[in-house]
Every structure is written in structure tokens, then in C-alpha cells.
Structures
1.
Amino acid sequence: MNGILVLAGTPIGDISDAPPRLAQELAGADVVAAEDTRRLRRLTQALGVQIGGRVVSYFEGNEAARTPELVEALVGGARVVLVTDAGMPSVSDPGYRLVAAAVEKDIKVTAVPGPSAVLTALALSGLPVDRFCFEGFLPRKAGERLSRLREVAEERRTLVYFEAPHRLDDTLAAMAEVFGAERRAAVCRELTKTYEEVRRGPLAELAAWAAEGVRGEISVVVEGAPEKAELLDAAELVRRVQVREEAGERRKEAIAVVAAEAGIPKREVFDAVVAAKNAARAGASQAP
């Protein structure tokens, strides 16, 4: 008979949040696959658990090579417990590849539900929770990051991201550029830990705060795009920007306000203004 694959959730911070079944599963596993075996050792010591089975590492660097080995153990009847450093395996952590391989072999997959940084951040954000989507980590390169953000610029659901602390300021600045400086968001830091902090505010304000330096595990929750109040063509967008410029506003601020009023990304208004400017230049150069 085939064995069983158990995806075991682990605490995202406070060790007392460990689900009661976690200790039982770790103690009774034939194989424990851990993202970091050193963290697993600290976890079992804190829980007072003695692992009787074999412990192997299973992380991004060896996931592809180790998956067949674990599937072979499962086919042989082993109970394999998969744990990652924090939260649920396969959610922005190793696990998906093994689950897919196990399902293909008709091996039972179950879970020990545990803490989730995604749901915890969402619940604490103060933003709508009735509909949301999880976007994981954004690309590290600035251009790719902007492209990914533009793909969801009109997404109405609340967005949840993970981010590294040293990239947080750049990410929030990019979000402010694409989603709008006034779009509401929440930065959730060190959830369930001693220095837990939830910082709420407009994206531009959060970006300025993060520029001073932020530490810890980070989740970012961003309000979904507002419903478009009206559909404006490019000519009307340009006209509204010109009216504001003539009133003394800087072009950058005028574009931001018009974009917010229209419920569209600033990039759309900026592109319309640039296109109109280029068209005017082309017309002037062709004039006799």
C-alpha cells in the first residue's frame, strides 16, 4: 500500500501557536522532510518531541532532485511529513512539486492546518477580506517588478504579497507608482513575534516610512483597485491634466490626481500626456 504525505503547518513566530497535531505527526513520521533541519531541531526541542524517523532536507536548492526519493518512500508505504521554516508548506515555500508528484502516483495527501502569514496579515490589515488574491514574492529586478504590478493594476480584490525587508521600500515605491500614491495598504512585520507591527496608510506614505529601514519578516496587503467612476478617453485625460497645470500644479501631481479621479493607474495618464505632446511636436514640425 502507498503511504501518506502530510503537509504540516508550523508557527510563523510564536511557538505556542503550533497546532496540537504537529508534535504527534513529527514523532510518528517515517520520514520528516524539512526546509531547514536546524530550524526543525529547534522546533522539536521547543515542543519536547523526539523524531523517530529519518530526517532529510527539502529546500529550493534540492527540491527537484529529492522529490523522486520521497515519492519512492511514499510508494513504499512511508508516512512522510513535510515542514517548512514557517507556515504552510507549498505556499511560497517548498512543497508544490512533491504534492503534484504524489497526486500523480495516487498517493493520499493530507495536512495539519497551521498558522498562515497570508491570512494573518489579511485579517490584521483593516482592508476588505471578502475577496483577495495572494501574489507571493515580486521579482527582484525593477523592470520585472513593475511589469508584474501592472498586470494587477486593475484587480478589484485585496492583494497580499511577501517581501524581503531590504527590498520593501523599492517595492512600496513601485506600488505607489503603479497603483496610485493614495491606494491604502498595510505592512505587517514580525507577525505573532515580540516586535510585531502593523503599519497602515497610503502607499506613498508607507514607502517613505520604509526608506528609513525595516527589519523582520514582511507581508504587504494592498487595497484592490477602485471601481472606475467613468471611462475617459485619452484626450479628456490630457485636457484635465492641462487644466491643473494651468492652475499652477506640477505635471507629476496633476497626473496623479487625474489618475485617482478616473480610477486608473498613473501610467495610463502619463502615456496619454506624452503621446499628446509628441503629436503636437510632430504637427509643429510639419507646419509650413
2.
Amino acid sequence: MLSVKSLFQEILDDDESFRLFCSIAASGESQGGWENGRIAALAPPSARDLAPKISRHGADEDKHGRIFNALLKKRGLEPVQVPADTDYTMLLERHGIGLAHEKLKGDQALTVQDVVTYLAHSRVTEQRASEQMDLLRKHFADHPDLGRAVRMISNDEDNHLAYCHEELLRFAATGHGRAIQRTLRECALAEIRIYRDVSLAVMAHMGRLLDWPRAKSATLAAGIHAVYAYERLGGWRRMVSLRMPERRDALGGPATAAPEFA
């Protein structure tokens, strides 16, 4: 029977599909780490108090990238080049979601609106990350190889989402509410399309590696399209609501160290 757990288990059990899975994850996390590091460095004077939290966000993402690479190393595997159609982070940037990399590569300070845009983009993408890691934690929290990594990354993603809620509400209280809601809506509607396309691409690559029958690939593609239909009809709204989180000041301390994988 095809289920989320059986699908992930199949991917994890095969070296080549596991290589691709971890390589995609590591690349996206490392890219997020670089982006947050540059945003922290370029934060405007009026938002310098936020810079340590942005740096912590970036340090967490870097840590996640190292964890996925360590999981590969533990199995004696090397990362593979990430196919362009599976590169979620770069596709978001290419479609104008978040801050342009050309801006982040420069030396000019960002504006407050840039910081608001970054937080709105992060609120949307961290919703996705939190949900994905919660799903993995549900099925693999006790896995002998993946359990510690899944639990740590899932907790971090929940912290990132809480931080985005809290900081966006703080900016909304100082007059940025309209811009925040507009940016959140634009990001969410673009993200659900890109997530659909990336999901289809990843499943196509996995299907070739694992030699899935055509019927299985068609069923998975239909499921991805069904998720997109739900999100397009209204599911996207969960990505744009704001509420004060139970975890306050979630990124107020130093990043935790990555676990060792012997």
C-alpha cells in the first residue's frame, strides 16, 4: 500500500535516491544560511536589534546543511549535483520571492521594507518547512540513523516559524501591516506553485532512480496536483495568518550544535 511512510522509506533505503534527497535538502539549507547571513550583515540601523536573530536563523540553516551532508558521509556517499528543477530556493529567488541575490551580494544597507519582505518570505517558507519536518518527525523520530537529525531540525523549523510570526506582528504594530499582508499573499501564491513544480520534479527524478512503474508515478503526480488544488482554493491562507506564538523570542539565544553521526 502506498503511504507517506512507505514512500519515504523506499527513498531512504536506496543509496542513489537517498543521495539525491540529502543533496537537495543540504543545498537548500546552505543557501538559506548564506541568505540570512547576508541579510544580517546588511540590516539597516533601525533594525540592527534584529540582526542577531537573523544570524541565528542563518546559523541554524547552515547546521541543517551540515547534518544532511553528515548523513550522506555516514553511509559512505558523496553529494550529487542538485537538478535545477528541484532547486526550491533558487526557483523562489528567480520568481522574485524574497530578496534578490544581486542585492544581497552588494554592500548597500537594506531598507526596513527589505527586512519586512525577508520576514514575510520566511514566514511562508518556514510554514512549509515546519510542516514537512513535522511529517518526517511523525514517521521517523525513532529511526536509528535519522531520528536525532529529524527531531533537531523539526524543532529549529518550529522556532523559525515562531520568530517570523513575532517579528512580523512587531512590524505590523509600527505601521507595516498593509505591506506585510500584501507581501505574504504574493509570496504564498507563488510558493504553492513552485512547491508543486519542485515536488513533481523530485518525484520524477526519484521514479527514474527507483524504477517506479508508470501507474505509481501517475498516482504520486495526481496527489501533488490535488495538494496544489487544495492550496490554491484556500489552503494558502494558513501561510499568511499571523498570531503571537507560544514560543516567544525563539531565536534569542545562540544556535545549538549539530549532532555527531558516527
3.
Amino acid sequence: MYRTWMRFFSPGPAHHRLGLVCLGVGLQHGALPTVGPRTLGHHVAVVISAGRGWYRGTDGPRTTVTAPALLWLTPGVPHHYAPDPDTGWDEGFVDFTGPATAAYRDLGCIEPDRPVVPLTDAAGPRAVIARIARAARPGNPLLEVETGAAVHELLVALRRARAGLAPDGDRLLAALARDACTPLTVADHAARHGMTTAELRDAVRRAAGRTPKDYLLGIRLARAKDLLAATELPVAAVARRVGYDDPAYFSRLFTRRVGLAPVRFRAQQGRTVPGGWHDRVPDPADPPLIHSPDTP
């Protein structure tokens, strides 16, 4: 016995320009029929939250699938899979496509070479799939926009839920972020963590989908933006605060990456206030009360 619910969508050209579109969503349970062999022209993320089964790709052996797990179905790649007929499984799937898939692949959020991916927990991805299913209600005027936005969220949730990323990867990234504005080379950072440069590069790529240099640069530039917007420090002082002794080099780098020179960014975004900005992130659910001057 099994239960199946699914909906499929046809986004228009304007929706495709958003980068990702959702083509379908489904929730299934039990000893489902075998899928394939087949080849698709789009991506599918199949999240297995309970049960077990098998997957087979192009002319390969069967791979055991044990929940929680993710099946990546990649365009143009033949695949064949099914739950164990005795136990079945709980499955949620999302079909999607769009030009942004190439960037997500480069960032390691989509892995064509790993069709079966163990997850630490399927709760996060399943919650996103459930929201896509709710958005599929008849007559929803924002169906394509809402489901397309949720595909972005799903890819992030799957990245976070992937087994093998935490906690070591998270601790390494946190340590790099803490030291990002010190004038250290990538080799210096690697040595601090008892790693070779190649080992650090591989670890950061697995955890963040980026090179160590790009990861550190992103943190430095974010801090530089904060200082430019929230203080009146000279640009040379901002450069030193984020690890650059040469302010001219910092300005060229900032301009190339941000698209504005530091002084131009400050002119647009400056919000200098007495005492500076608060460091603690506010809780959107509990914002501070702002009283009108006329409020007693």
C-alpha cells in the first residue's frame, strides 16, 4: 500500500528570469512503485525522511538508500530507484530548473556527482517541501513566485542538512571568520589549524562552497562596509581594520568587488549615529518600541 500526492506547474518566461522555478512537488508514503529507468530534462531533489530502498544510475550497481537521505536527479542522467517493498519509505520531492542551478552547482549546493547524499536530519528540507505543497493550493495568484523562492530555500536547507558538514566544518568557518581581518595569508590560516593549504582549501570548499581566499574576502569586505557606513574613520583606517596595510590596494579591491569606491559607498550608505550601531542582531518578532515625540 502507498499514498501519493503531487502537483505540477508551468511557470512563464518572466518567472524563469527569477533564476529558479519550481516545476512540481510531491509527498509520498509507503511501498511506492519503482521509478525508471528514465532520464529527465530538469533537476529533482528527492528527500527520504524514513525507510530505506535503493538507487541505480547509469549502468552502475545498486546503491543502498537509508533515511534520512537525498537523491539528486540530474538532467540528462539516467536513474532508477525504489523503496524497499517490505518497509517502503516517506518521500518528498521537488522538480526545479533555471539558470541559477549552475551557480548553485558551483557553490556545492547541487552535487551531480553524488546522486545519493546522506543527511543528518530531513526535518528542515521537509518543512520547505511542505510549504511548497501548501503554496500549490488552487487559485494562489503568487504560486510561481512563492514556489520558486522556496526552491532557493530548499537548496540552502539541503546544504545545511548534509551529513559530514557539521560540526567540524562549522567550527573551521567560525574560526576563519574570527581571524579574517588579521593580516594573514591563506597559508598562515592553514598553519594555524594544523593543515596544509590544500587541506584547508578542500575543507572550506566542502563547508562553504568557496575557496578560503574568497570566503575571507567576503568577511573582510562586509566588515569594511559596516565601518564605512557606521563610522567616520578614514578609508586608510578602515583598510587597516580589515587587514590591508595598503589603502590604495584596498580601495581598488573594494571597488572591483562592490562596484563602488569606498568613499562613494559611504556617501550612499553612511548612517553614523552617536555611540555606534548595536552589535546584537535584533529579534524581528520582538522589535524595540519606537515612541513618537507626541507619545506620553
4.
Amino acid sequence: MTITIDSAPARTFSGTLRSAAGQLTRSPILIATVALFLLSWAIAPGSVSRSSIDSLLPFAAILAITAIGQTLVVMLKGIDLSVPGMMTMGALVSTQFAAKNSDNVALALVVVAVIAVVVGLINGLVIAVFSVTPLVATLAMNALLLGAALAYSGGTPTRAPQSVSDFALDKTLGVSNTVWLSVLLVVVVALATKRTVWGRRLVAVGANESAARIAGVRVITLKVSGYVAAALCYSGAGVLLAGYISTPNTNVGNQYLLPAIAAVVVGGTALNGGRGKILGTAIGALFLSQLTQLVLSLGAPSSTQLLIQAAVIAVAVGLQSVKGKSSLTRLFPQKLPRSKPV
């Protein structure tokens, strides 16, 4: 008996877009995001003004890029706590390495990419080969990265190269280049997870690793590739963040760990692995960014922001659980269709 997971019927590009659009219109996170913007307009109009939206979108885009990397790991039934370290390393290396080499941005980006690939390889191999819990492996990697970033920078922030800052701050067609880059990444990763062999195998490994191995999937290789792709997303987000804020410090990535996980969860990706919702994650990043802006515009302290993020994660996880779904069914019972006379 031969088991295969690569025989899914081919779908046209337009069919994929129509399917994605149909799912998007029924997405709870999209409805919640629209409701949040309407609520913001009603109680704090300044939080949805043109200038506020212009300042919101780049940070939402950076969070979306980070959360997309986390989504790939969660699809593999893992969790990646090396987000702060990888973002900080990407931000500091891209600024200080370029400054020490005559503002050679291209070479700095190559160095950042190589570091991200090495970090992803180590994370993936430690988890897949040595069966170390992802929580422990990535937490240790995060401590290593933060220590290395502190040693490399000496704790002194350096101004980002002008070309990186120009790209992050400039606009194309009235929209920040950072936003366009995040949109491109969302489209590429969404198509990769839906339409490619790699994406179908990623889903298979996350859903049932033993069955995927029996089907002939190289589980170790696939897990490593997922963690490498995630690390590249984190490092890219760190570079963009460095360009946007100009002078990143050694704590620049710390504030993105919890929001990235929250964006994944509220976007509809279950923490027990399997299929992920890349577009939902991006909308979740926008939702959380606007929620933060609304809270701050109302004069609430930063501690309230963290409490709200934790509450959002708890509610989203509860709604995804079987108990949460059954509770919703009891609260909002579906009407059975009436039988038609013969």
C-alpha cells in the first residue's frame, strides 16, 4: 500500500484567490478588526486619523512579518521564543556592520541572512533530531542571541544606514514601503503553504508527524526548513524596525514576542499544529496594533496593554478549544432546516 500526500488536485491561481476571498469575508478576525476600527472612531477619533493610521501601519507590518514566521513554527506544532533575540540581532548587525564597512548595506543584509539561517538550522536540528521541546530550545537560543547582540554592540546603539531608513520611511503610492513588503510576504507565504508540495508537507507534519513520516516525508528536513524560514522573517523584521526607528538598542525586539504569538492565535491558527492562516495572522497583527493604539490614546498605562494582549490570547485559545466551540453552540444554537413537503 502506498500513501501519498502530494496528490491534491491542482487549483488555478484565480480559484485560489476566490477561495481566499470567500474565507476572508467569513473570518472572525476580519469582523473583529472592522468592529475595532468603528469603535475607535466612536470613542477615540484621533486614533483613526490619517496621521495615526500612517504611523500605525508600518509597525503593524513589522509585527505581521514577525508573526508570519511564528505561524510557520506553530503549524509544525512548535513555538519559537527566539523572536526577541533574532530581531535584536538583525537590527544591531544591520546597523553596526554596515557602519563599520562604509555603509555597505548589501553585505550587512547578507550577514544578517546568514546568521538567521544558522539560527534556524540550530533550532530545527535540536528540536527535530534531539527531540528537545521547542519551548526550551528556542528560549535557550534567545538568551544566546541577546548575549551575542550585547557583546557585538557593546550596548551602544548605532544609527541605521541612510538607505535602510529611507526605504523604511518612504512611501509608494501613498503607502509605506514596509507595508508593501509585508503584503508581498503574506502573498508569497500564503501561496507557498497552500499550493506547493513544501506547504502541503508542512501541514502534514504539523497535523500528524508519524503519518507524515510513513508517507515518506523527510520530517527532519521539513522542520529545519520551517525554523529557518521563521528566523529569516524575524531578522527581516528587525532590519525594517532598525530603519524605521533609526537607532535600535539591545532591547528592540523584546516587545514583539507576545504580540507575535497573539497575532497567530487571534488570526485563527491553532496551537496544536496543522493548517495555518497566514492572511488571518496579518489581519491579527493589524487588530492588535490598533488595539494598542486605542488603549494608549485613552490614556491607559503600558501595563494595561500587556494585560489586554494576554486576555486576547486567552479568549482566542478558549474559542479554538473544543469546549469553547461547544459553549458557542449552546449559546447560539443553529436552526435546523425545515423539511419540505414531498
